[in-house]
């Protein structure tokens, strides 16, 4: 386990961000038991900010606190992922409707650039990571242009849950997946460019729910 030592002793926010990043980047694996003393020592902080951070992450559903057993990185079931995707779908469709009149030519150019980047072949882990980040940027741009701060906060929390689900996915047919995603992403951008809210809502919903089904493959019920 590699964690970067923090400079300040009283650093609750930094501890929270460090642990959250550790969960989402597989420093801590799904189901792994967390040792609070060990984490505090590696980060160079007292136990108090670590415990506070763990409580925050437990509220988000990224960490599970099991009485008389310990603290663990959350594992998600297929039902967890399905429910999360349904909520994410509702939020992003609402964001897209609010954002439709706000997209600029610069935004459309950014969408086109992201489409080109996500069309690149994915054969190595580094390429997989870059693809996932570009996909996240694509959807975040839609949510950001809604200019709804509370919606964006809820959306980010849901994305953290889905990130954990992606960690469970040990294998994937990337050639087939990127081809399907590419077609869906282009349909979304075409709907934005046309200013067609109904087409945008339907294409987003189809894309998000289809992606959710692929995430549930191999997960326990």
What does this structure look like?
The structure is a single chain. With 221 residues, the protein is mainly alpha-helical. It has two domains: 12-73, Orthogonal Bundle (Arc Repressor Mutant, subunit A); 78-216, GntR ligand-binding domain-like (Four Helix Bundle (Hemerythrin (Met), subunit A)). It has helices at 12-24, 36-43, 47-60, 78-99, 105-118, 125-144, 149-168, 174-194, 197-216, and strands at 33-34, 63-66, 70-73. It starts with 11 loop residues before the first helix and ends in a 5-residue tail after the last helix.
Summarize the structure.
This protein is mainly alpha-helical and about 220 residues long.
Q: Measure the end-to-end span.
A: 30 Å
Average predicted local confidence, pLDDT: 87
Helical content band: 55-70%
Q: What would the principal axes of the Cα set say about the shape? A: globular
Order of helices and strands: HEHHEEHHHHHH
Give the full name of the CATH homologous superfamily of the largest domain: GntR ligand-binding domain-like
Which regions contain 5 or more consecutive residues with pLDDT less than 50? none
Give the class from helix and strand content and strand pairing.
mainly alpha
The protein's oligomeric status is single chain
The number of helical segments is: 9
**Overall tally of structural domains:** 2
The CATH first-level class of the largest domain comes to Mainly Alpha
**What's the alpha carbon Rg, rounded to whole Å?**
19 Å
Largest sheet: 3 strands, antiparallel
Number of strands: 3
- % residues in beta strands: under 5%
CATH fold topology of the largest domain: Four Helix Bundle (Hemerythrin (Met), subunit A)
- Give, in spatial order, the strands making up the sheet with the most strands: 1-3-2
| CATH architecture assignment of the largest domain | Up-down Bundle
């Amino acid at each position: 386990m590699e964690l970067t030592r923090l400079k300040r002793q009283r650093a609750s926010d930094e501890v929270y961000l460090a642990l959250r990043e550790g969960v989402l980047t597989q420093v801590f694996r799904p189901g792994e038991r967390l040792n609070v003393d060990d984490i505090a020592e590696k980060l160079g902080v007292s136990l108090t900010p670590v415990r506070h951070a763990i409580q925050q992450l437990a509220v988000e559903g990224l960490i599970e606190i099991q009485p008389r057993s310990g603290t663990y990185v959350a594992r998600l079931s297929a039902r967890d992922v399905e429910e999360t995707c349904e909520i994410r779908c509702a939020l992003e469709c609402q964001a897209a409707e609010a954002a439709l009149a706000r997209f600029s030519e610069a935004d459309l150019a950014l969408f086109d650039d992201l489409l080109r980047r996500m069309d690149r072949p994915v054969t190595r882990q580094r390429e997989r990571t870059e693809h996932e980040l570009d996909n996240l940027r694509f959807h975040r741009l839609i949510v950001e242009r809604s200019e709804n701060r509370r919606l964006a906060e809820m959306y980010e929390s849901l994305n953290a849950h889905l990130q954990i689900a992606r960690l469970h996915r040990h294998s994937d047919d990337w050639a087939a997946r990127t081809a399907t995603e590419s077609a869906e992403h282009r349909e979304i951008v075409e709907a934005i460019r046309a200013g067609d809210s109904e087409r945008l809502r339907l294409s987003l919903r189809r894309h998000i729910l289809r992606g959710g089904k692929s995430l549930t493959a191999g997960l326990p019920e």
